[in-house]
Amino acid sequence: MKSFESRQAFRMAYRLQRAGGEYRWVEDTGVPRYEDGIFCGFMGSVVDVTGRRNTAFAPDEQAIRIVFSLTERERQVLVLIAEGKSTKEAALKLGISYKTADSHRSRILEKLGVHETASMVRYAIRSGLITP
Description:
The chain is α+β, with helices and mostly antiparallel strands. The protein has helices at about 1-5, 60-65, 70-80, 85-95, 100-110, 115-125; strands spanning about 10-15, 25-35, 40-50.
């Protein structure tokens, strides 16, 4: 979204589930496209990079189910915290109040059945939300 708003090139990697249920790593890149000086969108590509990634990691199916029972916003907060952001930093990045982010964090801990940040990070890694 930041690249779209600022009309800047982007590159990101993420996991994508194929129709058969298999997860593959892809790298998505794009550059802004203009016609007559007017922004028209992005032109880019998505490339399967699974072979270049560490293939020893396989997401834990139970962790995936539990993490994806969280709301989209809770997953966003979980990813930011798992990446080392504080609750305050996560709130700023998501454009929400600290109190709201802290409330999401509390619900995440409750839904995952854990009591500390380190366990949240393990869930994020085991489910494939972030890479170790």
